[in-house]
Amino acid sequence: MGAYHAGSRAVQDLLGVRDRADHVGRSLGQDIKPVAAAFLELQPLIVVGAADPGTGRVWASPVTGRPGFVRATGPRRMSVAGGPPPADPLATALATPGVRAGSIALDPRTRRRMRLNGRLRPTPRGFAVDADQVFSNCPKYIQRRESCAWVPDREPGTPRTAGELDDAQAGFVAAADTFFLATVHAGGADVSHRGGNPGFVRVLSPRELAWPDYPGNAMFLTLGNLRADPRAGLLFLDWASGATLQLTGEAHTEFTGDERTVRFTVTEAVHTPAALPLRWSAPEYSPANP
């Protein structure tokens, strides 16, 4: 598949960055290079995004394991041992062959991140993704967390589902310095990272969020997807307690001069206390944060 579809091209042209995007787009390939394979094997967490085949809603879900649970098992295949719990809103998608999925492995310890997008393939031990796109991003807006501890005796709480945010969840979002954003288009799916100082995501109401789109690599894969298809899924993590907040809904981008704001409307929220068996250290905020 090509690096860009019509949605990304429209945003690039609107902002006058097509030439820069073409240059940066040369970094997109299908092969998992040895350095990328080595990076994957060190990670205790990846985030996967896709549209649920039944409802059509887009979700971003975390998957954790001891380092080595994610591996390159071929030049264009990433295999994952395990998966989210059966109640996770992406469980059906991850068990469905051929579903378009995006994924991101982000390591706060090194401020490195890698994205791999392709087609899902269920396996006896979990799932695999056959890659259409593999690429790395710069460390901008990634908060450094120096250590990550495995908490084997942490028991996930019961997921709570609602159609809007309660006060505690709104506070969770407002305090976040990081979240993950799953988007889709006719030919694929993608998961990106958004970071900033706490408060960069604003809760406008129990059903509406907004955040600034900070300057990046000019590819506009995420905003291009949203231009083509407004469906989106958000994942917020509590890096200490392991709690997760997954949101699905629709998003659109507002362009005002050189500034861009994304507004997201919540359709459904799933809040799971102690969902992840990981405890990260306190953040050192990225020097790139405005």
From TrEMBL:
Residues 165-261 form the Pyridoxamine 5'-phosphate oxidase N-terminal domain. It holds the Pfam family PNPOx_N. InterPro entries: Pyridox_Oxase_N, Split_barrel_FMN-bd. This is Pyridoxamine 5-phosphate oxidase.
